[in-house]
Amino acid sequence: xxxxxxxxxxxxxxxxxxxxxxxxxxxxxxxxxxxxxxxxxxxxxxxxxxxxxxxxxxxxxxxxxxxxxxxxxxxxxxxxxxxxxxxxxxxxxxxxxxxxxxxxxxxxxxxxxxxxxxxxxxxxxxxxxxxxxxxxxxxxxxxxxxxxxxxxxxxxxxxxxxxxxxxxxxxxxxxxxxxxxxxxxxxxxxxxxxxxxxxxxxxxxxxxxxxxxxxxxxxxxxxxxxxxxxxxxxxxxxxxxxxxxxxxxxxxxxxxxxxxxxxxxxxxxxxxxxxxxxxxxxxxxxxxxxxxxxxxxxxxxxxxxxxxxxxxx
Length: 313
Fold this sequence. Notes:
Helices cover 46% and strands 11% of the residues.
């Protein structure tokens, strides 16, 4: 969710039912070097609560220092990202890379828990590869050093995001009599039916949604409504979709400034308007227009032109 789950996107997700949110993950090295981009990621707002700041890194000293800086920003949770599989992170021993050195992972976690007064949580994967799925033992050891919750993605680092997420080991963690902390499952949850099925089948305390929320922030309300009633909410119509896009866009302008807000919003339009026929020209306009007024006018035009589009198909 790097470059996605920033404050403008989180504001939209909160409006549409997200219960707990996390910042983009923040490099410990960047944070202690006072890098502008890393410091910006510390920005949190009262309406987001409960909100966690997540940090990543491969060295214990900088991670401990970054945790102190993150805590000073006033979140509700400090989260350690031991999940990210991308090469530039994992091959440097950070993110999911630390799954190759479990003793270091445990030691780093203990140092951060001992440093922070806030609850510390962990996001991780099943293991580095198929030969090292030690998540049941890892969860026990991390609980023993003081984490307050764990979220597990049902793939190894070697899988990246390929294949299907395996929730059986997540269930083993949750049903381990040694485990008393909340266990959250993650991976492949993209429909309300699947969310309810997996929660019931695997017994997790909750479900973490990532990629399925991109362009569909209402997925949170859809899942919660289905879990409560067994019925589907109607999909948002074009007017409601444009309302979400407008909110996301205006928040981006407010937080990033006119130029950066326009440029960084461009990555989202294709997801918000996925599946609309004959939309290519309008998407190209949205990603090439240079002024906020042009984009506002185009969004208004789209709302009128495609007002009858059926998003249920």
